[in-house]
Amino acid sequence: MYKVFVNDTPIIITSSLKKENNFPVYLFKDLVFDEIIYKLKNDAICGITLYSANLEQDWQIFLQNLKVVPAAGGLVLNSKNEVLFIYRNNIWDLPKGKIEKGETIETAAIREVEEECGIFNLSIDKKLLTTYHIYYQKGIKLKETHWFLMHSNYNKKLIPQIEEGITRVSFKNESKIKEALQNTYANIKLVYDSYKEL
Fold first, then answer.
1. Rounded to 5 degrees, what are φ and ψ at 95?
2. What predicted TM-score, i.e. pTM, was given to this entire model?
3. What is the CATH number of domain 67-196?
């Protein structure tokens, strides 16, 4: 299954016949890409399920409609198992950013977290998942973000990357995480859920 968000509304591409939500179901082979995006942007629907007879092949077809922007980021834990959050555009988020040419996804993930949060001594534990969301910037794009579980014992003052619109950076305990998740993106909830399942 692939889950792609348009704002926070999901397009679920699946080969499973099991109905797991109340979204309208369409056959992938009948897909008119622009029509689906238009529906999600302008109709009051909570999501769309696209049934696929060949998931990997149809996913590649889906990607042909979009310019894919690869990115990487981290869910960072400190020694108290608190999670590092950034605050940008009045929303709590996790640090992430575009992969630069010639960079590995792991290198990009560490660099982006360091730049956005002013944190160091990062180590990657494992890959968590990949999330997808569609946005508009000189055309329609798909951000494909590779997320890693990271640790850091860095205990100096964290510095938000103001030029990237980040106004706050902080480690949050369980109760503060619950608050932050009330004001975040659907993809960030997926990343956090993936960490909690470990």
1. -70, 135
2. 0.93
3. 3.90.79.10
